[in-house]
Give the backbone structure.
Amino acid sequence: MEPVIVVKEFTFDSAHRLDNPYLDPKVSAELFGKCFELHGHTYHLFVAVKGSVNERSGMVINFVDLKKIVTNEIINVLDHKYLNEVGELKGIVVTCENMLIWMWEKLVNAIPNLYELKLYETPTSYAIYRGPTSLKELNLADTVNLKENVR
């Protein structure tokens, strides 16, 4: 049987600012422009699971189970929060890209056959992630080096 991709959408509201703590604040302000200032978004998260349809249930995954996992691991942690001060997000640049990597790490062991995460920051701006990069692999010092090499 061919695999099916099942997708569930979630919405949460959060505030953040783009800032690299390893850069001088003036450099960060120049790098991130107006997004250096505190602002908020209504995020739309799409969680996709890929697998074979179970003959007994007729499902790849039960939407109720998927909702419970994502709500507990992601939505309850991020909704109406200042993202720059949330647990493992502290100390990184809180972009859609980095948020997706963090979300993947929170969900991959809890959701069998997790396939894709898509996060909309605005109606026309989003990022997609399919694993397996780790937040531990992200080195903000590299951002400092890149910025200094540009000048």
